[in-house]
Amino acid sequence: MNKYSDSKVLQILAVVKRRFVSLTMPSLALIAAGMLAGCETPIPPAAALKEQVMNLREGDALKISFPGSPTLDTTQQIRRDGKITMQLVGEVDAAGMTPSALEKKLMDLYAPQLSSKEVVVEVISSSLTIYVTGMVQHPGKTLSDHPISALEAVMEAGGPDYTKADLKDVVVIRREGNIMKNYKVNLKAVLQGKKNEPFYLKPDDIVYVPERFSMF
User: Fold this and answer.
1) pTM of the entire predicted model
2) Does the domain made of 58-125 have the CATH classification 3.30.1950.10?
3) Contact call for residues 199 and 168 (beta carbons, < 8 A)
């Protein structure tokens, strides 16, 4: 007669399996990030993320044109206080706004002076700082002068280490207020053409490419 029943053997195997997996968890860095972030956060729509990335920041250089009144044209950098100085109307808050929102604001401010109700705000230089770590060829800081997706950031870091990287479970760690949030991104599906919507990054995002788990 067997010492253990079939059900008892299955229970013992399940316990052993759980203990084995716990010993082979991904790196402590990802665990710590998960503890800070809490539950995984749903991925926002790409269009909304791209709009957030395009919010103007201090240090951005702007070219502001008035097609109907070219004497008002100016090129200047957003100051540390988030403002720019415009002829006739003085200081204007710019940081945190999208270019289109700033255009509308300037049109309202200059309405009495404009013969043509048109203002064009163009970002001529900007710097978006992203950090890429984990199973990539060259982990570290990446600078971009345009909106950049998680896949593009990984490629800027030399691409993934295809022998080790788990591209299905890439994590974007983002500070939102006083909270760190995690967004899971399946870059493998993107590379295989199964998913076309890019995940756009925001300033100071951390892109973590984990190591692929293997039982052997």
Assistant:
1) 0.56
2) yes
3) no
| 92 in Cβ contact with 109 (< 8 Å) | yes
> Could you report the per-residue pLDDT of 144-155, keeping only the tens digit for each?
877 789 999 999
* Residue whose token pair is 């201090």: 58
Contact 62, 84 (CB under 8 A): yes
Q: Tokens 């590379």 label which residue?
A: 191
- Which top CATH class is 26-52+127-209? alpha beta
- CA neighbor of 64 nearest in space, from 122, 115, 125, 107: 122
Q: Please, which residues have CB within 8 angstroms of residue 151's CB and are 6 or more apart in sequence?
A: 187, 190, 191, 198, 199
Burial of 149 by CB count in 10 Å (0-12 exposed, 13-18 middle, 19+ buried)? buried
